[in-house]
Design brief:
Blueprint (H helix, E strand, L loop, with lengths): L4 E5 L4 H12 L4 E5 L10 H6 L7 E3 L5 E3 L1 H9 L9 H31 L9 H18 L12 H10 L13 H14 L6
Parallel strand pairs: 1-2
Antiparallel strand pairs: 1-3, 3-4
Helix pairs in contact: 1-3, 1-6, 4-5, 4-6, 5-7, 6-7
Protein name: Glutathione S-transferase
Keywords: Transferase
InterPro entries: Glutathione-S-Trfase_C-like (IPR010987), Glutathione-S-Trfase_C_sf (IPR036282), Glutathione_S-Trfase (IPR040079), Glutathione_S-Trfase_N (IPR004045), GST_C (IPR004046), Thioredoxin-like_sf (IPR036249)
Length: 200
């Protein structure tokens, strides 16, 4: 049996969960180690020795090398699998969604969730742009998923993994998914495809 990877992450983080999901889905042996991000776990000297950037998720490979940034990690783990399209244009489309997720989805939906759910701030205290841009992101996804089962056609890819992580938690950021039936159906398809249960 291959020596397992060590995955450092916070179970409340969508960015961390997507790494765990891909490893589990592909049968890659791994050991999960919880890092309490709100409690300062990423600022501990032992963790900073592994990742001076002080961020999770982080993977430590059996040879001692490390890799951070969730989308970089899942691309590496999924290399050669069905989660990455073989066709060049479909692969580029997958990457387009993954870049978009980090720049135009996560900074609004995940950040608003963190402010409301973890910091217990009032919606009135938050920058209105977080809600506005989050709704823009959901509308774009809804339009795409009205036309296809997954973000890159009819097959589950890393684009879906990357985007489902925080989309299925969006209600905790004050985003009502009721007006987005295609997104809700897509979330269920991705959860089924990855073999993960629905988010409570």
């Amino acid at each position: 049996m291959a020596e397992p990877l060590i995955l450092y992450g916070d179970p409340g983080s969508g960015n961390c969960l997507k790494v765990k999901w891909v490893a589990d889905h592909l049968g890659i042996p791994s050991v999960w180690r919880n890092v309490d991000v709100p409690g300062g776990g990423t600022r501990e000297p032992a963790f900073l020795a592994l990742n001076p950037a002080g961020r999770v998720p982080l993977v430590v490979f059996p040879d001692g090398e490390t890799l951070s940034e969730s989308n970089a990690i899942i691309i590496h783990l999924a290399e050669g699998s069905a989660l990455i399209p073989e066709a060049a244009r479909a692969r580029a489309r997958m990457l387009q969604w993954m870049f978009w997720e980090q720049y135009s989805h996560e900074p609004y939906i995940a950040v608003r969730r963190y402010q409301l759910h973890y910091l217990k701030r009032s919606p009135d205290e938050l920058e209105p742009r977080l809600a506005e841009r989050g709704v823009d992101a959901l509308r774009l996804m809804q339009g795409t998923l009205d036309r296809s089962a997954f973000l890159v056609g009819d097959t589950l890819t890393l684009a879906d993994v990357a985007l489902v992580a925080y989309t299925r938690m969006a209600h905790e950021g004050g985003f009502d998914l009721a007006p987005y039936p295609a997104i809700r159906a897509w979330i269920a398809r991705v959860e089924a495809g990855l073999g993960i249960g629905p988010y409570a």
